[in-house]
Design a protein that fits this description.
This protein is an alpha+beta fold. It has one domain (about 10-180, about 215-240). Helix content is about 35%, strand content about 10%. The protein has a two-stranded antiparallel ribbon. Helix 4 packs across helix 5 (about 165-175). The longest helix has 23 residues, at about 110-135.
Length: about 280
Amino acid sequence: MQTKTPQRRSIRLTRRGRIALVATTAAVIGSVVALPVVLSGEQVEEPTSLTIPVGWRAEQVYTAVDKVLALRNGTTKKELPAMKLPLPAEAKGNPEGYLFPATYQTTEDSTPRSLLSQMVDAANKELRAVPLAAGANSAQQNGYRTVTIASIVQAESGGTADMGKVARVIHNRMQQEMPLQLDSTIDYVRGRNTGQTENHNAPLDNPYNTYARPGLPPTPISSPSKEAMRAAIAPTPGDWLYFVTVKSGDTRFTAEYQEHQRNVAELKENRQRSAASASP
Protein backbone atom coordinates (compact mmCIF):
# COMPACT_ATOMS: atom_id res chain seq x y z
CA MET A 1 0.00 0.00 0.00
CA GLN A 2 1.12 3.57 -0.59
CA THR A 3 1.80 5.84 2.35
CA LYS A 4 3.52 9.16 2.83
CA THR A 5 7.30 9.24 2.48
CA PRO A 6 8.72 8.49 5.93
CA GLN A 7 10.69 11.13 7.74
CA ARG A 8 14.29 10.11 8.26
CA ARG A 9 16.08 10.19 11.57
CA SER A 10 19.80 9.60 12.00
CA ILE A 11 21.66 7.96 14.83
CA ARG A 12 25.34 7.85 15.61
CA LEU A 13 27.21 4.88 16.98
CA THR A 14 28.83 5.95 20.22
CA ARG A 15 30.76 2.93 21.34
CA ARG A 16 34.07 2.02 19.78
CA GLY A 17 34.64 -0.53 17.13
CA ARG A 18 32.84 -1.60 13.99
CA ILE A 19 29.39 -3.13 14.34
CA ALA A 20 27.42 -4.55 11.45
CA LEU A 21 23.71 -5.00 11.93
CA VAL A 22 22.61 -6.75 8.76
CA ALA A 23 18.94 -7.20 7.83
CA THR A 24 17.56 -9.42 10.55
CA THR A 25 14.33 -11.19 11.32
CA ALA A 26 12.26 -10.02 14.25
CA ALA A 27 11.55 -12.33 17.16
CA VAL A 28 8.05 -12.91 15.84
CA ILE A 29 8.27 -15.44 13.02
CA GLY A 30 7.76 -13.85 9.62
CA SER A 31 7.91 -10.24 10.81
CA VAL A 32 10.65 -8.70 8.71
CA VAL A 33 12.05 -5.46 10.04
CA ALA A 34 14.72 -3.82 7.89
CA LEU A 35 17.75 -2.90 9.98
CA PRO A 36 20.64 -0.81 8.65
CA VAL A 37 24.32 -1.59 8.47
CA VAL A 38 25.97 0.51 11.17
CA LEU A 39 29.58 1.62 10.91
CA SER A 40 31.39 3.49 13.66
CA GLY A 41 30.93 7.25 13.38
CA GLU A 42 28.52 7.10 10.40
CA GLN A 43 24.95 8.36 10.22
CA VAL A 44 22.39 5.69 9.33
CA GLU A 45 18.66 5.32 8.88
CA GLU A 46 16.43 3.64 11.44
CA PRO A 47 13.93 0.89 10.54
CA THR A 48 11.20 2.29 8.30
CA SER A 49 8.88 -0.59 7.43
CA LEU A 50 6.95 -3.52 8.80
CA THR A 51 5.69 -6.46 6.75
CA ILE A 52 2.59 -8.33 7.92
CA PRO A 53 2.41 -11.76 6.25
CA VAL A 54 -0.80 -13.29 4.93
CA GLY A 55 -2.60 -15.42 7.49
CA TRP A 56 -1.22 -13.79 10.59
CA ARG A 57 -3.37 -13.51 13.70
CA ALA A 58 -3.93 -10.26 15.57
CA GLU A 59 -1.71 -11.36 18.46
CA GLN A 60 1.21 -11.78 16.06
CA VAL A 61 0.60 -8.34 14.58
CA TYR A 62 0.50 -6.68 18.01
CA THR A 63 3.87 -8.22 18.89
CA ALA A 64 5.38 -7.14 15.56
CA VAL A 65 4.16 -3.56 16.03
CA ASP A 66 5.70 -3.45 19.50
CA LYS A 67 8.94 -4.73 17.99
CA VAL A 68 9.22 -2.25 15.12
CA LEU A 69 8.30 0.71 17.35
CA ALA A 70 10.67 -0.46 20.10
CA LEU A 71 7.87 -0.63 22.66
CA ARG A 72 7.50 -2.89 25.66
CA ASN A 73 5.94 -6.20 24.66
CA GLY A 74 2.18 -6.02 25.19
CA THR A 75 1.90 -2.25 24.66
CA THR A 76 -0.12 -2.41 21.43
CA LYS A 77 -2.61 -4.90 22.83
CA LYS A 78 -2.98 -2.88 26.02
CA GLU A 79 -3.75 0.30 24.08
CA LEU A 80 -6.24 -1.40 21.72
CA PRO A 81 -9.49 -0.54 23.61
CA ALA A 82 -8.78 3.18 23.33
CA MET A 83 -7.89 3.16 19.62
CA LYS A 84 -11.43 3.25 18.19
CA LEU A 85 -10.35 1.69 14.90
CA PRO A 86 -12.66 1.96 11.84
CA LEU A 87 -14.15 -1.51 12.30
CA PRO A 88 -17.69 -2.78 11.65
CA ALA A 89 -20.01 -2.88 14.65
CA GLU A 90 -19.97 -6.70 14.62
CA ALA A 91 -16.25 -6.67 15.42
CA LYS A 92 -16.88 -5.05 18.82
CA GLY A 93 -13.48 -3.37 18.68
CA ASN A 94 -11.59 -6.57 17.85
CA PRO A 95 -9.51 -6.04 14.66
CA GLU A 96 -8.93 -9.76 14.05
CA GLY A 97 -9.21 -10.33 10.30
CA TYR A 98 -8.92 -6.61 9.50
CA LEU A 99 -5.15 -6.19 9.94
CA PHE A 100 -4.50 -6.45 6.23
CA PRO A 101 -1.29 -8.24 5.18
CA ALA A 102 1.04 -5.78 3.45
CA THR A 103 4.17 -3.70 4.04
CA TYR A 104 3.63 -0.53 6.06
CA GLN A 105 5.98 2.43 6.34
CA THR A 106 6.86 3.82 9.76
CA THR A 107 8.02 7.31 10.72
CA GLU A 108 9.21 8.95 13.91
CA ASP A 109 5.55 9.80 14.59
CA SER A 110 4.24 6.25 14.14
CA THR A 111 2.20 4.79 17.00
CA PRO A 112 0.40 1.48 17.51
CA ARG A 113 -2.86 3.23 16.66
CA SER A 114 -1.53 4.80 13.46
CA LEU A 115 -0.12 1.49 12.20
CA LEU A 116 -3.21 -0.55 13.06
CA SER A 117 -5.43 2.14 11.51
CA GLN A 118 -3.47 1.82 8.25
CA MET A 119 -4.03 -1.93 8.29
CA VAL A 120 -7.76 -1.65 8.95
CA ASP A 121 -8.13 1.04 6.28
CA ALA A 122 -6.36 -1.24 3.80
CA ALA A 123 -8.64 -4.16 4.70
CA ASN A 124 -11.76 -2.02 4.27
CA LYS A 125 -10.49 -0.77 0.92
CA GLU A 126 -9.83 -4.29 -0.33
CA LEU A 127 -13.18 -5.49 0.98
CA ARG A 128 -14.99 -2.77 -0.98
CA ALA A 129 -13.09 -3.67 -4.15
CA VAL A 130 -13.45 -7.45 -3.94
CA PRO A 131 -17.15 -7.86 -4.83
CA LEU A 132 -16.69 -6.15 -8.18
CA ALA A 133 -13.55 -8.17 -8.95
CA ALA A 134 -15.28 -11.39 -7.91
CA GLY A 135 -18.38 -10.66 -9.98
CA ALA A 136 -20.62 -10.65 -6.89
CA ASN A 137 -23.42 -8.31 -5.86
CA SER A 138 -21.94 -6.17 -3.08
CA ALA A 139 -25.42 -5.29 -1.80
CA GLN A 140 -25.92 -8.94 -0.85
CA GLN A 141 -22.69 -9.25 1.10
CA ASN A 142 -22.12 -8.86 4.82
CA GLY A 143 -18.58 -7.56 5.22
CA TYR A 144 -17.83 -9.12 8.59
CA ARG A 145 -19.21 -12.50 7.51
CA THR A 146 -17.10 -12.30 4.35
CA VAL A 147 -13.92 -11.58 6.30
CA THR A 148 -14.69 -14.41 8.73
CA ILE A 149 -15.14 -16.91 5.90
CA ALA A 150 -12.08 -15.54 4.09
CA SER A 151 -9.95 -15.95 7.21
CA ILE A 152 -10.94 -19.62 7.43
CA VAL A 153 -10.30 -20.08 3.71
CA GLN A 154 -6.85 -18.57 4.20
CA ALA A 155 -6.07 -20.90 7.09
CA GLU A 156 -7.44 -24.05 5.46
CA SER A 157 -6.05 -23.59 1.93
CA GLY A 158 -2.71 -24.88 0.77
CA GLY A 159 -2.57 -22.12 -1.83
CA THR A 160 -4.70 -19.78 -3.89
CA ALA A 161 -5.67 -22.54 -6.34
CA ASP A 162 -7.84 -24.29 -3.72
CA MET A 163 -9.40 -21.22 -2.11
CA GLY A 164 -12.54 -21.18 -4.23
CA LYS A 165 -13.27 -24.84 -3.47
CA VAL A 166 -12.61 -24.47 0.27
CA ALA A 167 -14.99 -21.50 0.32
CA ARG A 168 -17.62 -23.56 -1.50
CA VAL A 169 -17.39 -26.33 1.10
CA ILE A 170 -17.99 -23.75 3.84
CA HIS A 171 -20.99 -22.28 2.00
CA ASN A 172 -22.43 -25.71 1.20
CA ARG A 173 -22.14 -26.90 4.79
CA MET A 174 -23.80 -23.78 6.15
CA GLN A 175 -26.61 -24.07 3.62
CA GLN A 176 -27.22 -27.66 4.74
CA GLU A 177 -26.90 -26.66 8.41
CA MET A 178 -23.94 -28.99 8.86
CA PRO A 179 -21.22 -28.12 11.40
CA LEU A 180 -18.15 -26.82 9.61
CA GLN A 181 -15.80 -29.21 11.48
CA LEU A 182 -12.67 -27.18 10.73
CA ASP A 183 -9.39 -27.79 12.53
CA SER A 184 -8.22 -24.22 11.93
CA THR A 185 -10.86 -22.71 14.22
CA ILE A 186 -9.79 -24.94 17.10
CA ASP A 187 -6.13 -24.25 16.39
CA TYR A 188 -7.00 -20.56 16.64
CA VAL A 189 -8.46 -20.76 20.13
CA ARG A 190 -5.51 -22.91 21.22
CA GLY A 191 -3.02 -20.45 19.75
CA ARG A 192 -1.32 -22.94 17.46
CA ASN A 193 -1.03 -23.86 13.76
CA THR A 194 -0.97 -27.64 13.60
CA GLY A 195 -3.72 -28.29 11.07
CA GLN A 196 -4.06 -31.76 12.61
CA THR A 197 -6.64 -31.34 15.34
CA GLU A 198 -8.70 -34.45 15.98
CA ASN A 199 -12.42 -34.22 16.68
CA HIS A 200 -12.22 -35.99 20.04
CA ASN A 201 -9.53 -33.56 21.21
CA ALA A 202 -11.60 -30.46 20.43
CA PRO A 203 -12.55 -28.22 23.36
CA LEU A 204 -16.28 -28.89 23.66
CA ASP A 205 -17.32 -25.71 25.44
CA ASN A 206 -15.92 -23.03 23.16
CA PRO A 207 -17.62 -20.91 20.46
CA TYR A 208 -14.69 -21.60 18.09
CA ASN A 209 -15.33 -25.35 18.23
CA THR A 210 -16.85 -25.82 14.78
CA TYR A 211 -17.07 -29.56 15.37
CA ALA A 212 -19.61 -29.13 18.14
CA ARG A 213 -21.20 -25.77 17.25
CA PRO A 214 -23.01 -24.89 14.02
CA GLY A 215 -22.21 -21.89 11.86
CA LEU A 216 -19.20 -19.61 11.72
CA PRO A 217 -16.94 -18.83 14.68
CA PRO A 218 -17.68 -15.51 16.41
CA THR A 219 -14.72 -13.69 14.81
CA PRO A 220 -12.29 -14.09 11.92
CA ILE A 221 -9.27 -16.25 12.77
CA SER A 222 -6.53 -14.62 10.67
CA SER A 223 -5.70 -11.80 8.28
CA PRO A 224 -6.91 -13.00 4.86
CA SER A 225 -5.53 -11.98 1.48
CA LYS A 226 -7.65 -10.33 -1.19
CA GLU A 227 -7.70 -13.70 -2.99
CA ALA A 228 -9.28 -15.34 0.06
CA MET A 229 -11.83 -12.51 0.28
CA ARG A 230 -12.66 -12.99 -3.37
CA ALA A 231 -13.14 -16.73 -2.84
CA ALA A 232 -15.41 -16.10 0.15
CA ILE A 233 -17.67 -13.85 -1.91
CA ALA A 234 -17.65 -15.86 -5.14
CA PRO A 235 -16.68 -19.49 -4.38
CA THR A 236 -16.07 -22.02 -7.12
CA PRO A 237 -19.32 -23.77 -8.20
CA GLY A 238 -19.56 -27.32 -6.88
CA ASP A 239 -21.37 -29.71 -4.53
CA TRP A 240 -18.39 -30.51 -2.28
CA LEU A 241 -18.96 -31.06 1.43
CA TYR A 242 -15.59 -32.51 2.44
CA PHE A 243 -11.93 -31.88 1.75
CA VAL A 244 -8.61 -33.12 3.06
CA THR A 245 -5.01 -32.54 2.02
CA VAL A 246 -3.66 -36.02 1.42
CA LYS A 247 -0.14 -34.74 0.77
CA SER A 248 1.49 -31.48 -0.17
CA GLY A 249 -0.17 -30.11 -3.29
CA ASP A 250 -2.90 -32.78 -3.27
CA THR A 251 -6.13 -31.62 -1.65
CA ARG A 252 -9.15 -33.83 -2.37
CA PHE A 253 -12.70 -32.42 -2.53
CA THR A 254 -15.81 -34.58 -2.59
CA ALA A 255 -19.52 -34.60 -1.87
CA GLU A 256 -19.44 -38.24 -0.75
CA TYR A 257 -18.61 -39.13 2.84
CA GLN A 258 -17.28 -42.59 1.99
CA GLU A 259 -14.88 -41.16 -0.57
CA HIS A 260 -13.76 -38.62 2.00
CA GLN A 261 -13.07 -41.43 4.47
CA ARG A 262 -10.87 -43.15 1.90
CA ASN A 263 -8.97 -39.90 1.38
CA VAL A 264 -8.49 -39.50 5.14
CA ALA A 265 -7.20 -43.09 5.34
CA GLU A 266 -4.69 -42.29 2.60
CA LEU A 267 -3.54 -39.23 4.54
CA LYS A 268 -2.96 -41.34 7.65
CA GLU A 269 -0.98 -43.87 5.64
CA ASN A 270 1.18 -41.10 4.22
CA ARG A 271 1.84 -39.77 7.72
CA GLN A 272 2.79 -43.21 8.99
CA ARG A 273 5.22 -43.73 6.10
CA SER A 274 6.72 -40.33 6.70
CA ALA A 275 7.16 -41.04 10.42
CA ALA A 276 8.72 -44.44 9.69
CA SER A 277 11.20 -43.00 7.18
CA ALA A 278 12.19 -40.28 9.65
CA SER A 279 12.92 -42.80 12.42
CA PRO A 280 16.62 -43.66 12.96
